[in-house]
Amino acid sequence: MACAQEMLQLVVAGHVDHGKSTVIGRLFCDTNSLPQGSIDRVRRIAGETGKGFEPAYLLDAFEEEQKQGITIDITKRQFHTAKRGYIIIDAPGHKEFLKNMISGATGAEAAFLVIDAGRGVEEQSRRHASMLALLGIRQMAVIVNKMDIVDYSQEVFQNIRMEMEAFLASRNIYAQAFIPVSALLGENIISPSDKLPWYDGGTLVEALDGLSGKNSPDNAPLRFPVQDVYKFDQRRIIAGRIESGRIAVGDTIHISPGGKHTTVLSLEAWPGPEKPWEAFAGECVGITVSDEFFNKRGEIISKADSPPQVTFAFRASIFWMHKTPLQTGKTYRLKLATQTVEAEIGAIFRVMDASTLTTHATGGALGQGREVRLNDVAEARIIVKEPVVLDAFAASEATGRFILQDGYDVAGGGIVIEREAGAGLFSCFARGDIYARCELFEEYYYSVEDQMVNRHRPQGTAYNIGDKIPLEGKSFAYPEFFDIVMFQDGAAVKIRAGEVAEILPLADYRYEGLPLLNDRGFALMVRSRAEWQRCLADFSAGPPDAELTAKWMNFTTYRSIPIAGNDWVI
Amino acid sequence: MNHLERLEAQSVYILREAYKLLGKLGMLWSIGKDSTVMLWLAKKAFYGHCPFPLIHVDTTFKIPQMIVYRDKLAWELGLELIVHTNRTALDQGMGPEKGRLACCKALKTDALNRVVKDHAFDGLIVGVRRDEEGSRSKERVFSERNAEDKWDYANQPPELWDQFKTDFPKGHHIRVHPLLQWNELDIWRYIERENIPVIDLYFSQGGRRYRSLGCAPCTGQIASSAATVREIITELEYTSVSERAGRAQDQEDAYAMQKLRKEGYM
């Protein structure tokens, strides 16, 4: 066995019963990649169950898998050819286990798509090919298996090849090779088969060795998501994995969201004593920096000339893996790189069956058209409740893909198509990396029907410098000149003549004697710089209680609560 | 990055995710080569610190040198070590002669499940590897166990892009598997590269050595002259005998490990 320095991660996909596990089992047997014990074990099981020797049992380890002759869940095995090493991921072909196939495929750089010569291209053949394309896997070979049951017919092979080529082209992927084999009988696996005289391409192993891995993203822009911050000793270490690019001691780094800058002091290492001065994509590192900001998990470190995007909304392709359909307006938990944020589906633009490629327009608005069901692929707008740092998947894979969780369950995955302008659910003030949410334009009213005070949230809008803001609503009236301080998001905004004049970090704000409001339009009872300093100190201590709020805030200065019906706000 | 560097980075990432996202954590430590590598990786991940206790499930049937080595290492490294033994089962006469699977279940599975409950662990870091045996090959990196410690192996959740299962109902726990993708040879090559000390039971004495460590009555030695890490690597590069061939419990039944592991065995 060669000591392979490089390993290619390959997923084997395709329709149920087309022989994926058999192909892998055969590869392992014929290249002597298995310990004697595991072949003996499969022979023993073959004896106990009365079936013949089945190479698939080498991978289908579960009792249920062997008794039913199917693969339920993925496995990964190392395997070597003379050229290099592989980690082979065996994926199930049942539609029911698509989530497991996707779990396998997300770890792969290249794919084999196995098709049964006797049964031809079937539903999961197409669905798996679509999913591989969506997940960004571009290196693919198509294995036409079970050639023995069609008498090694060239015509059957060519028909399957033409059909699959057309389908792959529609998904913008191209197979490197189409290879006729019989995995059960070992034909055209490691050596050419005399049963395929019309075939002049390579063997399965040659096709495997012809696939290439993904390029190392060392030269891409730096993306270093903060995983954790350690303070086990006197060092304050920011830990994470470099997803792309490189980082070196002395580099000026940019931290999103917020856009702060600092300098890398060291790259830490254990056991030492020597420490590296530079690190590259794929490495898990820990850095110390010159400014002791409050760093936290989820922030993304980059270089100032190529930062990621910060947004409240984006357009994405989502694949759904849950029995409960995807719903607009429902809150999901979105995880992207090391960030976790609450998210809603703002609109579903279209739903696609990944096998037939039939698309259903949904009209975009809430609740219309066909819902997004288990195994569907949808294009949708996602709105997050806190700013999320991301890239388009096409630009940066690791920061352009995410999962959606429904309760405790991972329910969907997706890739970012593009950031959408606008503010999402909340209105906000935005300048570069500063995104400060505000509820200044919400309408309060006493509902006659509900006999209680209600609040209506208008469509979210992002206000940039120079934008006019609404000074008058049905339940608020603001002056033309005032300042807004937002304790939660750490920002301040200056409104001059009804326009946004300045958006700045709260730390840089100086009180100038103009009326002061909070992010909900409540007046702050501050009349001097000294009072402002005391107020800032009070609110910096943590979430304010009722006493503190009553001490500094006045609701009725700019706001009122009219009596109205629930149709009043619409 | 080469293969070992990729494996190391992946394990460090997994350990850091577990530490950040799971509540109370413990690391199962069986004194063997895999546990030893896992402890080394934890110290890499946390810059010389091991921020969770180690747990040893002591069946009292372990090869005696293992216990001596365990206590010496824990003392030298200043580790927090939890040792647990299922005394009740032993008092009732449990041992390998009662049946190997029954013995494993009582002294290992039940004892382990007891420790998880007693210490209210949310996460248990375990050094199993896919290439050891079939049911382990099908594992997730973060694998949920319910309140009865059962593994719902036929319905595992999706695990995409290193977004692991870290949200679960109270009373459940997560088995974290940082070494899942390593194989036996990777472990030894890493021990060689990093120069990690391991217990000398692995090295040949009088033409025999242990390839896998466990309880004395159920663990056999193999014929081998490999007396150094390098010689072990050379031996493994040419062997076709499986690593756990000397572990009797695996051979009891074609699906023995699946049955044990469904109930909470490591």
Keywords:
heterodimer; A: 570 residues; alpha+beta; six-stranded mixed β-sheet; six-stranded antiparallel barrel; 16% helix; elongated; B: 266 residues; alpha/beta; Rossmann fold; 9 helices; 8 strands
What is the topological layout?
The complex is a heterodimer of chains A (570) and B (266).
Chain A: E1 7-14, H1 20-30, H2 36-49, H3 63-68, E2 75-80, E3 85-90, H4 98-105, E4 110-116, H5 123-134, E5 139-145, H6 154-170, E6 177-180, H7 204-210, E7 224-230, E8 237-241, E9 246-248, E10 252-256, E11 260-267, E12 278-280, E13 284-289, E14 300-302, E15 309-320, E16 331-336, E17 339-353, E18 359-364, E19 376-390, E20 401-406, E21 409-419, E22 427-431, E23 434-438, E24 443-447, E25 452-456, E26 462-463, E27 482-486, E28 491-496, E29 499-505, E30 516-517, E31 523-524, H8 529-540, H9 546-552, E32 553-554, E33 563-564
Parallel strand pairs in A: 1-3, 1-4, 4-5, 5-6, 22-26, 24-33, 27-30
Antiparallel strand pairs in A: 2-3, 7-8, 7-14, 8-13, 9-12, 10-11, 10-14, 11-13, 15-19, 15-21, 16-17, 16-20, 17-18, 17-19, 20-21, 22-23, 24-25, 27-28, 28-29, 31-32
Chain B: H1 3-21, E1 25-28, H2 33-45, E2 54-57, H3 64-77, E3 81-84, H4 87-91, H5 100-119, E4 123-125, H6 134-137, E5 142-145, E6 173-176, H7 184-194, E7 208-209, E8 222-223, H8 229-238, H9 256-262
Parallel strand pairs in B: 1-2, 1-4, 2-3, 4-6
Antiparallel strand pairs in B: 5-6, 7-8
Helix pairs in contact in B: 1-2, 7-8
